[in-house]
Amino acid sequence: MIRSTRILRSSYYDxxxxxxxxxxxxxxxxxxxxxxxxxxxxNHDLLRQxxxxxxxxxxxxxxxxIIIVEAGFGxxxxxxxxxxxVMLTEKTTRTENNLDYRPRTLDTALGFLPDxxxxxxxxxxxxxxxxxxxxTARGLNVFxxxxxxxxxxxxxxxxxxxxxxxxxxxxxxxxxYINGVALGFANIIQRGRIGCIAASGTGLQAVVCxxxxxxxxxxxxxxxxxxxxxxxxxxLMTTYSLDLLENDQETEVIILLSxxxxxxxxxxxxxxxxxxxxxxxxCFPGTEIPGNTFTQxxxxxxxxxxxxx
Length: 309
Hints:
By secondary structure, the protein is of the alpha/beta class. Helix content is 38%, strand content 21%.
């Protein structure tokens, strides 16, 4: 068998698309193997483990696509690689006259929607920070569904967003409600006077559904990511969200829910909330904060009930 390798530089493809194309090509006569992977560290390890790595494949970076084909003769392996490139183009290219057209770059997308104010990102974590950085640089608020983003990247991204007065929701943000628009996995909830800030998508959904059952609605539901109230991130987006809701005319009460925050972050929250005119209900299960800066709730249902009043 003859093995051929090709690197397509700066060419990101979804892993599902790559698996489908590789599976189709592997069915060809005299083709024993077709491997198509992005050049991430994990994929390089996988190629080495299965014995498919080549000197050329080692040169691929995380933004590059690796195509490796083993076939009965050299011309066939090269032809299969050419066919793979064609099939990938066919699966990802749309004409501008087609309603299913999907831009492949941020610049192209903004060309179609120049007034866009928010980007929703759901890609593998190793690429997410770079793409999110591009979005904040272009003045877009970010809803980052992706996980596996380092905490250093998270802090840096949130600081960059704050420098531009932008929301950065996530990483691993599964649910949000902004101006009545549901993002990620969300329920249909009536609009109302209660603003929510949550470090848990499932917790946010549980609270807003209970608020809806009690006959009230929400103004906004901001997801900040599960690590925002950690010592490392320091509540960067939570404190910014408190300021946004404090100055939002539709919001009359705020619910803040998270797993127990780091003590240093609690001090910062107490300092901010003590100066706010909007009352704040907190739900930090397993944590009781001395004083009366917040109205504290032990459960999500209790938080919803206390906010409704």
